[in-house]
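Aggregate trends can hide what the representation actually does to any particular protein. For completeness, the protein is quoted in full, as a sequence line and a line of structure tokens.
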Amino acid sequence: MESMEIKKTFCTTREAAVLLGVSVGTVQLWVETGVLSAWKTVGGHRRVMRDSVDRLLHKKPESTPVPHKVAAATPEDQPLSILVVEDDANLLRLYQENMSRWPMAPSVAFASSAITGLLMIGAKCPDLLVTDLRMPDMDGFYMLRVLRSTPELANTTVAVVTGLDADEIALRGGLPAGIEVLPKPIQFARLHAIATDIVNKRQFKTQPKTAATTQGDSAP
């Protein structure tokens, strides 16, 4: 009698990361935000439900092929990457129309739901994340708290565009430090200034030392 292979109904975060082709940190992010279903053992280890991994494999955004020239470029030569998470289709079109005219020619991706945005973040962390707080599929406050505690997103600048005022935000527990809150209607001039600042800081970090600086470094 042939033995029947019993398929595991769960897997570790590392096994899930291998199956999904992402980092363990990304799996932990997706678990914390509810994108993946999981539970904890008595010892505190996460066990990810295999059926949620399988479902995500069918949902996971496909990577867009990158031309060889761009792929070989150094980080400072890469265009600024922006992810906009907004469930209002009209506002998404407004973002697209405005950002397409920015001088730094950013690479902008759009997500119409928080879950789609999290999947896209798992595939590639953006330089700038622009998101609403009120979304039908997820609590934006909780999502941002989890994102801010994720090491992979340490270098991502986050800007919130919301119709909530300061008192309403405070009543919901506030937001992590370092997140700028912009009111609606969308303040595109301020978003452009934030994007420009990111580009300038990146260029400053990679700026080669001048001869004078080099001599100063070698001086006794």
